[in-house]
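Person: I keep going back and forth on a fold encoding question. Show me how you would write down a chain together with its backbone fold. Please set it down just below, with no commentary around it:
Helper:
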Amino acid sequence: MKLSPELTKLERDTYKQIRGNWRDKPKGPKVLSRAEIIEKLNREGMLPAITFIFSRKACDAAVKQCLQSGIRLTNEKDREIIRAIVARNIGNLAQEDLVVLGYYEWFEGLERGIASHHAGLLPAFKTTVEELFQRGLVKAIFATETLALGINMPARTVVLEKLSKWNGEGHVAISAGEYTQLTGRAGRRGIDIEGNAVILWNNDLDSNSVGGLASTRTYPLKSSFKPTYNMSVNLISQFGSEKARSSLESSLAQFQADKAVVGLAKQIRKNEKARDELFVESACHLGDFVDYSQMRADIKKLEVISKRDRRRRVDAEEEIASIRKRLKNHPSHACPDRENHARFSERAQRLQREIDGLSERINSRTNVIAKRFDRIKIILDDLGYIKKGEISEAGRMLAKIYGETDLLISESIREGVFEQLSAVDLVTVISCFVYESRSEESSKVPRGDVGVALGKISKIYGKIYNLENEHNLEPMRAPDFGFCWPAQRWASGHSLTSVLKDDDLTVGDFVRNMKQIVDLLRQLRGAIKELEPLIDSALLKIDRGVVVYAGAAV
């Protein structure tokens, strides 16, 4: 992509200005507030716009800033339609929940044509925002990147505040594919002649890097597919082990792994050819120079050991002396071209080490999907889910349980973990299979029957972890007890305000986790017939209020 000469000159002049004022506070272009940016876009006729901010809190803060500035992007007719749509979508929510849901601030923003959109919002709020934006009634949205995935919300303009985001460990630059996914929202088919992508200026911004992101047109599609325990028993049940393994070998993930192997194999062949040529060059007419070169290499290794490890120094020095004696007696030691031979031989050995490393990488990638299936099958066989190549009764139960912790749930059922629990306690315990904390802080857990059940689950997880480690499988995620208290309070009939007041938990996260608990309980209902009455009671206790009226977009 060719950058505008005016942009390049402006950037260069700005950096000169900043460097020229290094003793004082750095000066550069005025940084506009979020409200000022929306007002400018409105004046330029560039709304509706989506501003991507990679933080939920920052999205909500941006809406507040706009409201405080007095921005209004709607007329009275727009507001009448907005009120009608909100009443239709949100009318079933309990009045006492509206404050904790942040309804009044949210509704004020909608009336002014401004909203946030992220996973922390109540799903019914998100779907309402989406509908209003699609109808042109909400004209400015502050959103996290999840809005760019699978939601039909094109805009005239997309604004990116930064070209980096937090990935859970640190701030990383967004990829060209992510840039295209985000800015691809700009331009409404049949309405706009062109879309606008706006990148906000900051001192660290490099226009060339932006041009590189915008001009990239090929994005590798990488499969994240891998067999699970549930998938494996279902495949074996339907096709048998051999056919199941064969079908996995034909997956996109295996194709991509094999494609990478082709490149590695090509490099090995190239290295082998160069190595063989070097070995020819290193050949000595007086004796086996490969043997002679190996002794020289052994001496170097032992010298390193002698310097680093005092305890092994005496033994190393004795071995060095012994090898040097053999070295002097070797026929090639008297060769006048000895050092030239040595250089060729060392380069050949270096290439051999590279070849060995590449071979290991090929071995780790060849049939990687099928190998994972084989290892899973061994564990399933050890635990009795497969007997004589056939799916057992336990295997048929596992086939009905879907999720990241499928085997842990199944083993907990077989160990009778849920049998003595009340309906409220069952909900509390079940939460550990679906919840995933956003922080690494350990959570306190309820005592009594719940504490005993969670202790049993932890032991079962330890058993599975050891099996997976023994068979070189990536361990499944551990049970997470961070949602036990909110789940218990909700199942006990507490109000939404009471459930959320002591937890750093958004309404959207709460509803999503409760919906996942509902889904898992329904799976268990089909898997454990004898616990159906208990599960039905648990479902009645939690499928209420905002959980019922959450809408489909969880």
In short: The chain has a mean pLDDT of 82. The longest strand covers residues 49-52. The first helix runs from residue 5 to 20. The CA atoms of residues 287 and 332 lie 5 Å apart.
